[in-house]
Design brief:
The protein contains 22 helices and 6 strands. With 487 residues, the protein is mostly helical. It is an enzyme of class 1 (oxidoreductase).
C-alpha cells in the first residue's frame, strides 16, 4: 500500500520535472481513434444477469438510491455562481448509477431539443452515462461520435452505467469469471498515460481505481477539435496544475452573465482528489470502499456492485483498516464535512459579491483593461470553489487537500474584490453596492433572468414527445429490453 502512494508521488515529480511537459496537449482529430468493427461491446446490462446474478443484483440495487435533491433550492447562491450557464437552471445531488440515463434526459441543462440538430448541449454530454458510449466510439470512431448535438445520441445511448463500462465482457477471462477490467473510452486511456498510469502496465489495485476515472474526473470539451472530452492533466492533477493548463490554452466554459469573467466549470475531480488523499497514497482504492468483497449466502466471496456509501457496509469496508467504531469514525467524517462546508460557504459569499460588484463596475463604464485582473481572480477563485464542491466525498477522500484549495480560493476572492473596489471607486460608485435578495431559488432565478417555468414547460414537452421516440427506436433495435425509468 505504501508503495502505491510512493509511486504516485514519483509520477507527480516526474511530470513536474519533465522538460517535455509543456508539449503535452489534447489530441488532434487525426490522433483520435477510428472505427473498429472488431471491437464488440455488449452494452445491454440485463444480458449479464443470469451468469453473474449477485453482481447484477448489486448493480440493480443502486436504484434504491433514488432521492432527487435540488442543490440549487438548498443553496440559491449556486444560481448566481453559475450565472449564464446551464447549471444555474438545475443541479441535483448525485444518486444511484441506475439512473444515469434518466437523469441526463430529465435535467434542465440538456434543454428540450425537437430533433437531433437542436438543443444547447453537444454529444460529449453523454460520454459518462453508460456502455453505449464506448460501443458507439468503436462503431463510429471518436470524431464521428463527438460530432453534433446531444440529441443525436438519444436513441442509441440508453443503458445506464454498467458492466461493459469497466469489464471486457467479450473476453475469455470474463467468461471464466475473472474481472477483465479495461478502460473502455480512448480519451481516458490517453489521460492515464499522461500521468504515468498506463492501464495495461498498472497493478490490479491501480486498475480497480482507474476504471472509476472513466467518469469521476475533471474534464473539458475541446472545442478546437471535435468537442471531444479531454482531461486537463498535462501538467498534473492538482488544482493549480490544471488551472495553469487551462490558463495557458485560454480555455473557458462560458462567460459569466454578470461579471463577464471567463469561467471554468469543474466537473467532479474525485479520482484526482483520491490520488492526493490518504486513501490514494496508501493504495486503498475506490472499489475497496464503494465495492467491497462480501460473502454470499452460499459462502462464496464476490464483489458487491451496489456502489454507495461505505458506511452502509461498514464491516466490509472501513473496518478492514480502521479500529474505531462505526459511530466514532462517522463523527470524524461528519466533522470534516462540517469544517469544509463552513469555509466553503464563506468562499461562496465572497465570489457571489464579486460577480455583482463586477457587474456594477461594468455598468459604471469600466474598461476591459481595468477589469482584466479582477476577472482573472474571480475565475481562479470560483475554479477552486467548484473543484472543492464538485469533488464528491472530498471531505472523506482528502479533507486536507480540499481545505487548502478553499483557502487559496478565499485568497483569490479577496484579491478580486479588492481590485474591484478600486475600479468602483475610480468610477464613482458608492460602496458597498446594493446586493439583490437571492435567499430562495425562485428569487435567485429572477435576479439572474432565468425563466424557470418556461424551462420546465419546455422540458416536459420534450419528455412527452421526444423521449418516447428514443425509447421506441432503442427497443426496436434491440439495445434494451425495457425503457429507462421516467424519473
Amino acid at each position: 500500500m505504501i508503495l502505491a502512494g510512493t509511486s504516485f508521488l514519483i509520477v507527480q515529480q516526474a511530470i513536474a520535472e519533465d522538460k517535455s511537459v509543456s508539449e503535452r496537449r489534447a489530441p488532434t482529430k487525426a490522433e483520435m481513434t477510428k472505427p473498429n468493427q472488431n471491437l464488440i461491446i455488449e452494452a445491454n446490462n440485463s444480458l449479464f444477469a443470469s451468469k453473474y446474478p449477485k453482481q447484477y443484483q448489486g448493480w440493480s440495487d443502486t436504484a434504491k438510491s433514488n432521492e432527487i435533491v435540488s442543490a440549487l433550492e438548498e443553496n440559491p447562491r449556486l444560481i448566481v455562481l453559475w450565472g449564464g450557464y446551464g447549471f444555474a437552471k438545475a443541479y441535483n445531488k448525485p444518486r444511484g448509477h441506475f439512473y444515469t440515463i434518466t437523469d441526463v434526459r430529465n435535467i434542465l441543462r440538456t434543454g428540450a431539443p425537437v430533433d437531433d440538430k437542436t438543443g444547447p448541449m453537444p454529444m460529449a454530454c453523454w460520454t459518462c452515462k453508460g456502455p453505449d458510449v464506448p460501443r458507439l466510439i468503436a462503431e463510429w470512431g471518436e470524431e464521428e461520435y463527438f460530432r453534433g448535438k446531444w440529441a443525436r445520441g438519444g436513441g442509441e445511448i440508453v443503458n445506464s452505467i454498467g458492466c461493459a463500462d469497466c469489464h471486457d465482457t467479450k473476453s475469455k477471462d470474463f467468461a471464466e469469471g475473472k474481472p477483465a477490467l479495461r478502460i473502455a473510452r480512448p480519451h481516458v486511456a490517453r489521460a492515464l498515460d499522461i500521468i504515468g498510469k498506463e492501464f495495461t502496465m498498472s497493478t490490479k489495485s491501480d486498475k480497480r481505481a482507474a476504471v472509476c476515472a472513466n467518469c469521476h474526473v475533471e474534464y473539458y470539451f475541446d472545442k478546437a477539435q471535435a468537442n471531444n472530452v479531454v482531461f486537463p492533466w498535462m501538467k498534473g492533477v492538482d488544482v493549480d496544475s490544471m488551472e495553469k493548463y487551462y490558463d495557458e490554452i485560454e480555455f473557458f466554459d462560458w462567460k459569466h452573465s454578470l461579471s463577464k469573467a471567463p469561467m471554468l466549470k469543474t466537473q467532479h475531480p474525485d479520482y484526482e482528489t483520491w490520488l492526493m488523499g490518504t486513501h490514494g497514497k496508501n493504495g486503498v482504492t475506490c472499489a475497496d470502499c464503494h465495492m467491497p468483497k462480501v460473502q454470499g449466502a452460499d459462502g462464496k466471496v464476490y464483489t458487491d456492485h451496489k456502489i454507495g456509501n461505505p458506511f452502509d457496509n461498514f464491516e466490509n469496508t472501513c473496518s478492514n483498516c480502521h479500529d474505531q467504531s462505526k459511530e466514532t469514525l462517522r463523527k470524524v467524517i461528519s466533522d470534516h464535512k462540517k469544517d469544509i462546508k463552513d469555509v466553503m460557504s464563506k468562499l461562496e459569499d465572497q465570489i457571489v459579491k464579486a460577480h455583482f460588484e463586477a457587474k456594477a463596475a461594468w455598468d459604471a463604464g469600466a474598461t476591459e483593461e481595468e477589469m482584466k485582473e479582477a476577472l482573472k481572480a474571480i475565475r481562479h477563485a470560483q475554479w477552486r470553489w467548484d473543484y472543492s464542491a464538485a469533488s464528491h466525498g472530498g471531505h472523506m477522500h482528502a479533507p486536507d487537500i480540499i481545505l487548502k484549495v478553499i483557502a487559496s480560493g478565499l485568497d483569490r476572492a479577496v484579491d478580486a474584490r479588492a481590485k474591484l473596489a478600486l475600479v468602483l471607486a475610480k468610477h464613482g460608485v458608492q460602496q458597498p453596492i446594493d446586493y439583490p435578495d437571492i435567499s430562495t431559488a425562485e428569487k435567485a432565478w429572477k435576479v439572474m433572468g432565468v425563466d424557470i417555468e418556461k424551462e420546465r414547460a419546455n422540458k416536459e414537452k420534450f419528455l412527452k414527445e421526444i423521449v418516447p421516440q428514443w425509447n421506441k427506436y432503442a427497443l426496436e433495435k434491440g439495445l434494451i429490453l425495457e425503457v429507462p425509468p421516467a424519473k
